[in-house]
Amino acid sequence: MSGSLRTWLLDEAPHSRGQARAGAFYRQWLAFRQNGLAMLGLSIVLGLVLVAIFAPLLAPYGPSAQDLDFRLQPPSQRHWLGTDELGRDILSRIIYGARITLGIVLLVVATVAPVGLAVGTLAGYFGGWVDAVLMRITDVFLAFPRLILALAFVAALKPGIENAVLAIALTTWPPYARLARAETLVVRKADYIAAVQAQGASGLRIVLRHVAPMCVSSTIVRMTLDMAGIILTAAGLGFLGLGAQPPSPEWGAMISSGRRFLLDQWWVAAMPGIAIFVVSLGFNLLGDGLRDVLDPKRE
Amino acid sequence: MMEKPLVAIEDLHVTFRTRTRDVAAVRGVSLTMGKEKIGIVGESGSGKSVTGRALLGLTPPTGEVRAKRLEFDGQDLRGLDPAGWRHLRGRRMAMVMQDPKFSLNPVMTVGQQIGEAYRTHVKAGRAEARDKALAVLEAVRIRDPGRVYDLYPHEVSGGMGQRAMIAMMLVAEPDLLIADEPTSALDVTVQMQVLAILDELVSRRGMGLIFVSHDLDLVAAFCDRVLVMYGGRVVETLKASELAGAKHPYTRGLLDCVPRLDRAQRELAVLTRDPAWLDGR
Amino acid sequence: MILSAENLGVEFTGLKAVDGASFSVARGESYGLVGESGSGKSTVLRALAGLIGNWTGTIRFDGRELAHDRDRGFYARVQMVFQDPYGSLHPRQTVDRALAEPLAIHNMDRREARIEKALEEVGLGHGFRFRYPHQLSGGQRQRVAIARALIVEPEMLLLDEPTSALDVSIQAEVLNLLDALRRAHNLTFVMVSHNLAVVAHMCARLAVMNRGKIVEEMDTDALRRGEAKDPYTRRLMAASRGYDRKLAESFKTLD
After folding, report:
1. CA A238 – CA C126 distance, rounded (Å)
2. B touches which chains (3+ CB pairs under 8 A)?
3. Where are the beta strands (DSSP E) in B37-99?
4. Both A116 and A208 in a single domain?
5. Which residues in chain C are contacts of A197 at CB distance < 8 A?
6. Residue A17: which of C87, C105, C130 has the nearest Cβ?
7. B83-112 average pLDDT score
8. Residue pLDDT, tens place only, B29-67
9. Where does B1-92+223-281 sit in CATH, by number?
10. Do residue C37 and residue B189 have CB atoms under 8 angstroms apart?
11. What are A129-150's pLDDT values in tens digits?
12. First to last CA, chain C
């Protein structure tokens, strides 16, 4: 990085909104960079994203390209991670599977975070009957066992990755609502909230512009730490045959079909297992690092 | 005349290392004191609290303490190991902090904590510790020590909590008490009472007292000598009785900028900071 | 009289925080409320500002009786400055954002010019506009809080211990600033403080509160001449003069 950009970013008296924001971000990045494990987590997650984006370029074979002459081959020069029972290249399937995993991650984030934040901050800020109604709804959803709900969904609709994600999202948001509510209860007593009240701001404006931003960082941290669990649940559903369906190269489904050969051709189940393990670990390390940097109590 | 000083500090430096730069919080402070009341006065960031804490070995790990001399009762404190500090802290030197709410353990009664503090330093049975605790509670003029003994910290008022805190620090009869803004969180009338108690205890027991505060008038009325700190240095040392004759413009500025009850002014004097003060006048 | 409170009461779970307080403030006047912690002085101010909803009695502003819920029009005329400059600014918002918010709430025009002018008026200038609160000192933060209150051009400022968290030299600067702004904009101040000398310096008239009640109301000049009659006021005055061991021992303990 050039010296002048660094000076611009670390300027104690920024000259524009953009510079102020970039500077604050850069300072957090400097703090984050100190944490080696978190950087490892970040590289794993970035790796997952890149692999998913460039899957067609990176994969040596198509994800469903069968070569029945080369069934259940051990890892070799030709197939780095071996082949499965239909002669498909496991490496290529894992690479394409990254797209599915990333898709699950994005879908869950896009549904869970806004819903949880909205419910939690509204309940926490307004209190009274708003709080009672919203939190009882949250309790209802919290009471659903995740896998049973997924089973019910699949039975009612049809097995597939979309329904699995739906089931995961429906059972994942309540803890976020509770987290956001707990933070809101603290934040709403702060003087800076009283200050905007005394400026005449409406309740909704205060929640959206002043309270919610204070809850975002803990939501991001919790989301990242939960991501491993979400990926594992999606894989678990795939393994049970309730999530992604063959021939989709979803990692859980791959383990499921590979388990028949576990003793003699271990790589068929082990390779996607390792992929799940590494990505989950990456999200956890990233989450730990983010918690250290974003924790509002640190300031 | 030249008896062994209770505290001898020479050229004390405390530097905090942060990610981006080093911050010199204390830069060359020297102090020699006997069993007297010393006030250290300054505004936030002057290094007054850091000085007090360095003497107690309570500098956070990011801070580095250097000194030509750092002695307590003839013992060199530089490079003292944790066991050595434990032996000194509480037993021979103690500290009273600003807010009793954060210094008292919320799940133990006031009396238990005082008894516990006593038993940490002196071999004593429970009954003896209890008697001792009741005695010091009485010494800090709590009228019904038996009742207060059984109260939890959240059940006592700020003034009483601070007196309980002082009682806890005094129970092992230390030779030096460091009080860091001990009354700043209290109302003025309560503040007076707490100070009177400290005053009495210090003169009766013959302790040394280092009183760290931002309030120059208060410190001058209370202590024998006053050190005025600015930017990590002592800019002026005064006998408390000679405060009116303070020479340094910073000390004068501090005295002048406070609104007074006895005279009306249209505008308050404003302290103009001279960068030269940072280099020691 | 621009503001008056009659028989104001606030009760928190059985405790009477404010008990029958009555006072009135003339337009352009600076009025002080003095008391120690728990005296109810800040609660009075918060009731005036509409920040607590369970007060009883009557509050009149500019001849109209105020309801518990205030409309935006009220806040365009009455603004508040809080005690703790470390707590009253949003930690994730720049000075610019803090100043733009009241302008957005009150739909005011020429926002760019107003923000620059407000910063100028409190002696900060453009260089501070895009900083975050953690990049400012306590005195600078309080200046931002004052700019934020003044930017909507109110007639009255409610000041809740505006300098008690600041060093004395910074306190002098902020008090001078407030006084200058009051005269420049013909503002009415209601100021709460535990510091008798600060209130005496800033206000022409003051009320002393103890345990929820106003025990005495008087002119500052009379106070300075030692004409206070109430024993609590006299004691507060004595304590404010500085430490005196004999005096301190004369106080009965409040256990």
Report:
1. 58
2. A, C
3. 37-41, 63-66, 69-72, 75-76, 93-96
4. yes
5. 50-51
6. C130
7. 84
8. 999 998 889 999 998 889 999 999 899 888 888 889 999
9. 3.40.50.300
10. no
11. 999 999 999 999 888 887 788 7
12. 40
